[in-house]
Amino acid sequence: MFILTANQMKTADGYAIHTLGIPGATLMGRAAQGIAETIAEMTPGPMGMNCATFAGMRVAGIPGALMANLGVLAPTLTLTLVAAACFERFRKSRGLTNILYGVRPVCMGLIFAVMLTLLDGTVFQAGALHWQSLVIAAVGAVLMFKWNWSVPKVIALSAALGLVLVR
Question: What tens digit of pLDDT does each residue of 50-95 get?
Fold first, then answer.
């Protein structure tokens, strides 16, 4: 990876535009995409929020970042509020009850599929059973389902067991 000075970048852009025939807008788009991907990798959270924060900060400082984030969240928040209002209105509806009854197994299937995906690479590594991870998962499941431990406590204990058992 190279870090170019402003003059070196200007020369490289000129070569790409005039010699290679790459439009300047394409170069700018690729640069913006690279910046967005770099920010997304450096900061926690979804890429849309990271890009909105970055763009908002560059344009109008902290108020710009807040407004840009609000703009990213507004559609989701609006749809969630509409769905909540409809749910309350039709809560006792037989049709909605039947729909939710049908959706429940689909949700369980999706959760099970995610669980199987997460098992590959943790409990099963390179096709072999990783017994330490299996012990940690079993202890966590027993503590949550039999003794009603909270998720943060189980995560903390799992991390501690991982430090002890997995080397």
Answer: 788 878 888 888 899 899 989 988 998 999 999 888 888 888 889 8
State the CB neighbour count (10 A cutoff) for residue 52.
Answer: 21
**pLDDT at residue number 43:** 62
> What distance in Å separates the CA atoms of residue 84 and residue 17, rounded to the nearest whole number?
52
Helix (H, G, I), strand (E, B) or coil at 88: helix
C-beta separation of 136 from 163 below 8 A: no
Neighbours of 27 (CB within 10 A): 15
Rounded Cα–Cα distance for residues 57 and 69 (Å)? 10
**pLDDT for 57:** 82
Helix, coil or strand: residue 132: helix
**In the 8-state DSSP scheme, what is residue 21?**
-
The H or E element that residue 74 is part of is: helix 47-89
Asked whether 35 and 47 are in contact (CB, 8 A), the reply is no
